[in-house]
Amino acid sequence: MSPSVRLQEMIRVIRGARTQGEERGVIQRECAAIRAQFRQADNGTRSHNLAKLLYVHMLGYPAHFGQMECVRLIASPRYNEKRVGYLGAMMLLDEKQDASLLITNSIKNDLSHSSQYVQSLALCTLGCMGSAEMCRDLAPEIDRLLRASNSYIKKKAALCAVHIVRKVPELGELFTPAARSLLSEKNHGVLHGAVVLITELCERNPDTLEQFRKVVPELVQIMKGLVMSGYSPEHNVAGISDPFLQVRILRLLRILGRNNDTASDAMNDLLAQVATNTDSSKTAGSAVLYETVLTVMDIKSESGLRVLAVNILGRFLLNNDRNIRYISMTSLQKIVQTDHNAVQRHRGTIVDCLKDQDASVKRRALELSLALVSAVNIRSLMKELLLFLSSCPPELRAHTTSGIFNAAERYAPSQRWHIDTILHVLTTAGGDVRDETVPNLIQLITTATELHCYTVHKLYRALITDISVQSLVQVACWCIGEYGDLLLRGECEETEPVQVAEDDVLDALEMVLQSHMSSPATRGFALTATMKLSTRITHNVDRIRSIVSIYGSCIDVELQQRAVEYNALFKKYDHMRAAVLERMPVIDKSSPGHTNGESAGGTMKEMEPTKLTQEVVLPQEPANKVCDLLDLLGGSAEPLQPSPALSTTPLGPVSSTAGGDLLDLLGGLDVTPVPPSVIVYEKNGVTLKLQTDRQTDTGMTVTLTATNSTDGDITSITLQAAVPKSVQLQMKAPSGDVIPAHGLGQVTQTVLLNNPNKVSLKMRVRVCYTSQGSVCQDTVQIDSFPSPAW
User: Fold this and answer.
1) DSSP 75
2) 234/632 Cα distance (integer angstroms)
3) Are 495 and 462 in contact (CB under 8 A)?
4) Which long-range contacts link 680-687 to residues 24+ away (Cβ below 8 Å)?
5) Residue closest to 675 by CA, chosen among 691, 660, 686
6) Cα R_g (the chain), whole angstroms
7) Phi, psi angle pair for 681, to nearest 5°
8) In angstroms, what CA-CA distances link 709 with 516, 703, 704, 706, 734?
9) Strand 714-722 with 728-731, pairing
10) Considering only CA atoms, which of 354, 370, 371 is closest in space to residue 362?
11) How many Cα atoms within 13 Å fall on the side-chain side of residue 267?
12) In DSSP terms, which residues pair with 707 in a beta bridge?
């Protein structure tokens, strides 16, 4: 390719290249030729070479060596060279380049040029890449051109002034008088530039905003002229007179009318006129109407006008263009809290959008539908949401279930309806619900005392139908364990009676225990339910004992521990089994013991403190049996000492008067000091504290408490401890394996230490947890233990 090839020929050769390597070769040869000609004197081809270099730059290849040539061409007296030079400056230079400072004087000279086209070149370049220093130097020249008589120059100067105000906001006061005078122009280009400039000035200076609120009537008149004007081929777009200018004026009116009664009243009639006279069948009309709606909702408008705006958005929902439907639902989402009744009128159309094929439209429709749920429409709207849940895409299931649960909790017309709704969600999308769903549903069931029989029958039928939904299976197992006697009785007024045999119930629970689909937590629920049924049935206790004993050697440590503890209840503590496994009281949702995945030991200690205290008081129960009960979860060979909280001096007189007041029994608890604790580990937002609960000559009971101060939950936390060989160590089951974020919860674990040889007590603790997807593991050495509080 010859070095003197024309621009069109170079483009043709580059486009004809078959490979990227061939294209690079053509461009490298042409760039080398352009460099060589740049070094030569003026040969009349400078603008031609720079134009080719700009095309090379557009293709993404380096063209920085042409920056100085741009400066030379801008200083040229020829218009064709000056035009290419300014174009090159806008493409190759920016305010970070030192070369941009060299063209400041040339731009200033050209702003005073006799030709309007040369002036416009300088204005466009300054408005495109002018730095803050250039803007300060040339701002007076721009203000002078804003007052020129040439409309072509004034519209260019207005847009250049916008760039200067963005770069140097304090220069806005310089352009305020000229900007206001531009509103009297008839030229639409000048008006458009003036409105953009005034909008920029008002957004950046509150004082300027107050000044321009006085021009609201003038803007209203301009807008009325556009709305009521006849056909103008120069400004008509799809039957709308200059929609670009209308949108800009409406946006400025929104800023001027915000939080101002006078300005809002002055534009109310205009907004109503625009809303009723604008055709929304074309995109241009929809754009004007959408801007009108935003203005109505942002100013202090009349209630009737706001209803009209909501109805416009409702019409947008029927538009075939998905983009228009999307922005309509986005706007309705913002105003649904303030204009709830007006938005409710379009509930049917919004629900129909749930069937849209577009994922973004479907998501917006879901969010808006959930926001429209109220006590009045909860039944009808929930039917639509449950129908949507059965066919919604996987990425929306979690959001849908969460929204349904929140709505049901706030507006449920009855407890039965609430329970039925949650069970329907669990059946449909049980794998996508949040972790707290199971304890929340259990708490709801316990409070609905009159629905226990109905709930256990319904959950039993769901359990024998499908055991793949873990959350549903967990709730079903819990209910069968608690209310199995109601299930076996077969008398239920709420539903048709079904005769269920003891073997059928145990078969269902054993199926859950043996299923490969059951998680360890689900197996724990099933094993506990099986154990609780031992006090609710009469003929299959031996089968339950057999099932429990099998899992005493289970590979899962949690399940094995439960089985061992339950075996101990059958053998050594069979006389206490009925009391320990009796039906749980109503769960208070705000109680500290209300956590998910709580161990059986934690349940007995926290949920039934009254039972334990009564065992201490009754004279027919020896004291050693109380110690045995407290030691039930430990499995230690030697009985532990009774808890100091249960063996304090107030117990003496109380035991002599059977049936004493519960408040008298626990009266001594108020003066019991809190055991001191020390921080043994603090890293990655996880803090581990150790406190000594009880200490004897040969033993000690300590509690490890882990908290989380990070923004995310800490999961899979495990604590492992090691002590000298002469010390016997026993760790109770932890209260959970997830530490909630922001210190909203904690995980505790009790450690029993038996030191018969009275050696120096030391302990090493390994902390392992998952934080933000990464596994962390640390080991801490504990050489001293805090003293107990008593």
Assistant:
1) T
2) 92
3) no
4) 680/765, 680/780, 680/782, 681/765, 681/767, 681/778, 681/780, 683/776, 683/778, 684/710, 684/771, 684/776, 685/709, 685/710, 685/714, 685/771, 686/710, 686/714, 686/717, 686/739, 686/767, 686/769, 686/771, 686/776
5) 691
6) 40
7) -155, 135
8) 36, 20, 17, 10, 19
9) unpaired
10) 354
11) 35
12) 687, 746
SS3 sequence, 182-217?
HHHCCCHHHHHHHHHHHHHHHHHCHHHHHHHHHHHH
CB atoms within 10 A of CB 534: 24
With helix as H, strand as E and coil as C, how does 319-375 read?
CCCHHHHHHHHHHHHHHCCCCHHHHHCCHHHHHHHHHCCCHHHHHHHHHHHHHHCCC
For residue 95, CA distances in Å to 89, 127, 138, 463 come to 11, 12, 15, 70
Cα torsion 505, 509, 511, 516 to 10°: value is 160
Kindly state the tokens that stand for 609: 């403190």
Residues 6+ apart with CB under 8 A from 698: 754, 755, 756, 758
Please tell me whether residue 695 adopts helix, strand or coil conformation.
strand
Q: Which two tokens stand for residue 416?
A: 């039965």
Q: What is the pLDDT of residue 608?
A: 33
What gap in Å lies between CA 573 and CA 634, rounded to an integer? 14
Q: Are 729 and 745 in contact (CB under 8 A)?
A: no
Q: What angle do CA 649, 652, 655 make, to 5 degrees?
A: 140
> Can you count the helices (H) and strands (E) in the chain?
37, 10
| Tokens describing residue 595 | 């956590």
Kindly list the distances between the CA atom of residue 92 and the CA atoms of 129, 272, 321, 630, in Å, as whole numbers in the listed order: 10, 48, 39, 82
pLDDT value at position 244?
A: 92
What is the C-alpha to C-alpha distance for residues 105 and 134, in angstroms, rounded to an integer?
9
Site of tokens 């056909």: 231
**Residue 780, strand partner residues:** 765
Model pLDDT, residue 230: 65
Enumerate residues 6+ apart whose C-beta is below 8 A from 394: 432
DSSP-based helix, strand, coil % in the chain, nearest 5: 60, 10, 30
pLDDT given for residue 172 in this prediction: 87
Closest by Cα among 403, 392, 391 to 437: 403
Nearest to 181 by CA among 166, 163, 165, 161: 161
Buried b (16+ CB within 10 A) or exposed e, 493-509: eeeeeeebebeebbebb
Residue 354, amino acid: L
Q: What is the pLDDT of residues 700-722, one digit of tens each?
A: 889 999 999 988 888 889 999 98
Q: Which residue has the tokens 């804003």?
A: 146
Block residue for tokens 């050594």: 572
Are 136 and 168 within 8 A, CB to CB?
Answer: yes
Are the CB atoms for 752 and 640 separated by under 8 Å?
Answer: yes
Which ranges of the chain have pLDDT less than 70? 1-4, 41-44, 230-231, 492-497, 588-675, 789-790
Can you give the pLDDT at residue 597? 37
Handedness of CA 10, 11, 15, 19 (dihedral sign): positive
Kindly report the three-state secondary structure assignment for every residue of 473-540. HHHHHHHHHHHHHHHHHCCCCCCCCCCCCHHHHHHHHHHHHHCCCCCHHHHHHHHHHHHHHHHCCCCC
- The gap from C-alpha 710 to its chain's centroid, in whole angstroms, comes to 16
Whether the CB-CB separation of 187 and 151 falls below 8 Å is answered with yes
SS3 label, residue 310: helix
